[in-house]
Amino acid sequence: MILEIDNLVKHYGQVRAVDGLSLSIGEGEVLGLVGESGSGKSTVGKCVLRLTEPTSGGIRLAGRDITHLSRRAMRPLRRDVHIVFQDPYSSLNPRFTIEQIVGEPLLHHGIASRREAGGRVAAMLEQVGLRPEMRTRFPHELSGGQRQRVGLARALILEPKLVVADEPVSALDVSVQASVLNLITDLQREMGFSCLFITHDLSVVEFLADRIAVMYLGKIVESGPTAQIFAEPRHPYTQALLSAAPVADPVRQRERRRIVLGGDVPSPVDPPSGCRFHTRCPLAYDACRTSEPELTDPRTSGHPVACHLVTADHVPDAAATR
Ligand code: SF4
Ligand code: MG
Predict the structure, then answer these.
(1) Which residues surround ligand 2, an ion (CB under 5 A)?
(2) Atom of ligand 1 nearest to the CA of 278
(3) 238 found inside a domain
(4) Atom of ligand 1 at shortest distance to CA of 285?
(5) Looking at ligand 1, which residue's alpha carbon is closest to its atom 3?
(6) How far, in Å, is the centroid of ligand 2 from the Cα of 59?
(7) Are residue 187 and residue 309 in the same domain, yes or no?
(8) Domain membership of residue 143 as a residue range
(9) Backbone φ, ψ for residue 292 (5° rounding)
(10) How far apart are the CA of 275 and the centre of ligand 1, in A?
(11) CA distances from 68 to 16, 44, 63, 84, 218 (A)
């Protein structure tokens, strides 16, 4: 396993951003971590990168426990794990040229001299579909899509084992989102890195992720192979997310009944009792308010769900209530 997260908890004061989350990512595997804003998914990414200190739980990167590593001890491991940020503009230093930005990790880790770095940067730019002449430009001279390609080049130049991508396309125009997603897919296949791909939009990870984990208020409510999640979403929340996602096939789109969730995501300061989703779940019943469902896999099919209504021979249908 490249990444193993065991019962991770991260509280910011009263805010229970992540509240007992476990997941793992194998070599060359892409995991899509999906949830609405406020679900805690970005906090998971920040804990993995040690940009914030976990409150409790364990994180192992390529077999090494990094949960409480100091900044200094973490430094050599920064070669192995890299992040692609949501906003490609604010994450690129405006005073640096593209060559300086993309080559910086090589110099920082003492992997290449300034002269050697130039050649590697040119090759990397080509790999992300940018002309080598771009090297001398500054971030403000580039389009949003080009800047995100620069962000990718910077993240990949050290050939990391794991890439954490936090909403890497959501700040981009819809017209360029697909091309950047295709590029990430191609690069992942060529280079074989593992990826924790964080997104609020399930449809973004349909063709990229091997597995999907759906988060709600600091916990995973369902996870499984991508094809299974799309074919048979078991948790009412996943069913609702999927019902709102666009599908390419017009027949499937017409057949699908839209599940509209009432209200907003409750505050993570004081999450609902019992099942955290009960305040918005169309199928909620008495037990949901008092007893918290465990994440279990009754069919032992690598597809665990946290809902009282899911059993070995029953999958609830949140669209059937109205
Ligand atoms: Fe809905 Fe109850 Fe299942 Fe939670 S446990 S998802 S409230 S039916
Ligand atoms: Mg976020």
Answers:
(1) 42
(2) 7
(3) yes
(4) 2
(5) 307
(6) 20
(7) yes
(8) 92-159
(9) -85, 125
(10) 6
(11) 19, 15, 14, 23, 21
ipTM: 0.93
Q: HSE, CB side, 13 Å, CA atoms: give it for residue 271.
A: 22
Distance from Cα 198 to the centre of ligand 2, integer Å: 8
**Which ligand lies nearest the alpha carbon of 86?**
2
| Ligand 1 pocket by Cβ (under 6 Å) | 235-236, 275, 277-278, 281, 283-284, 288, 293, 307-309
In angstroms, the CA 82 to CA 77 distance is: 10
Ligand 2 geometric centre to CA of 314 (Å): 33
Domain contains 245: yes
Query: Do 246 and 182 have their domain in common?
Result: yes
Q: Report which of 316, 218, 311, 225 is spatially closest to residue 265, judged by C-alpha positions.
A: 218
Closest atom of ligand 1 relative to the 237 alpha carbon = 6
pTM of the full predicted structure?
Answer: 0.92
Q: Which of 136, 132, 138, 204 is nearest to 168 (CA)?
A: 204
Ligand 2 center to residue 164 CA distance, Å? 12
What's the number of domains the chain is made of?
A: 2
Q: Which ligand is nearest to the CA of 279?
A: 1
State whether 108 and 135 are in the same domain. yes
Distances (CA, A) of 99 to 52, 87, 104, 244: 29, 19, 8, 41
List the pLDDT tens digit at each of the 322 positions of the chain: 999 999 999 999 999 999 999 999 999 999 999 999 889 999 999 999 888 999 999 999 989 999 988 878 888 887 788 777 666 667 789 999 999 999 999 998 888 998 899 999 999 999 999 998 999 999 999 998 999 999 999 999 999 999 999 988 888 888 888 999 999 999 999 999 999 999 999 989 998 999 999 999 999 999 999 999 999 999 999 999 998 877 666 666 666 678 888 888 899 999 999 999 999 999 999 999 999 999 999 888 899 999 999 999 999 999 886 5
Ligand nearest to the CA of 310: 1
Both 174 and 62 in one domain: the answer is yes
